[in-house]
Design brief:
Layout (H helix, E strand, L loop, with lengths): L1 E5 L1 H5 L8 H18 L3 E6 H9 L3 H11 L2 E5 L3 H14 L3 H12 L4 E3 L3 H7 L7 E3 L1 H9 L2
Parallel strand pairs: 1-2, 1-4, 2-3, 4-5
Helix pairs in contact: 2-8, 5-6
Length: about 150
């Protein structure tokens, strides 16, 4: 069973501009991933960083939907010194924002098989790191992994 850490943007993708084809595809891929989690075909992770971003979200509907989807996550990640050190290292090596570095550190610490994000820049920067998990877009996960 795949263990997947979704970037917070995956929990929000269904609310983004549906006029862009890329966003439509990502929203459908994220929806398919959540359905697989409901059927217990994959294992999702929810971290303290997700919780923090959700608390700061100014949009009530988005916040409520992310909270609802968080219940599909079978694993919870809490702050610990290893995550902190990994995040600092990722920031230095890949020039990541602190938020992105913490998400990646949580995923690495879990450990996750996949880190999925709709952020193309994060995917590009993460390639600079020696990670055991695969970092990819949710559409690529559906195309490459689910098809097999």
């Amino acid at each position: 069973m795949d263990v997947i850490y979704l970037d917070y943007n995956c929990f929000q993708r269904g609310f983004d501009d549906p006029h862009q084809v890329k966003i439509q595809l990502e929203a459908l891929a994220c929806e398919a991933i959540f359905m697989k989690a409901e059927r217990k075909e994959i294992k999702l992770i929810w971290s303290f960083m997700h919780e923090d971003e959700n608390t700061l979200c100014p949009f009530v509907e988005r916040k409520a939907e992310a909270s609802r989807l968080s219940f599909l996550c079978q694993t919870r990640m809490f702050p610990d010194p290893v995550i902190y050190r990994l995040a600092q290292s990722f920031q230095r090596k890949a020039r990541l924002s602190s938020k992105d570095a913490v998400h990646l550190a949580c995923a690495a610490r879990a450990p996750s098989d996949y880190f999925l994000t709709c952020d193309d820049e994060l995917i590009k920067h993460a390639q600079r790191l020696s990670l055991e998990m695969k970092v990819m877009n949710p559409v690529d996960y559906i195309r490459e992994v689910v098809r097999q």
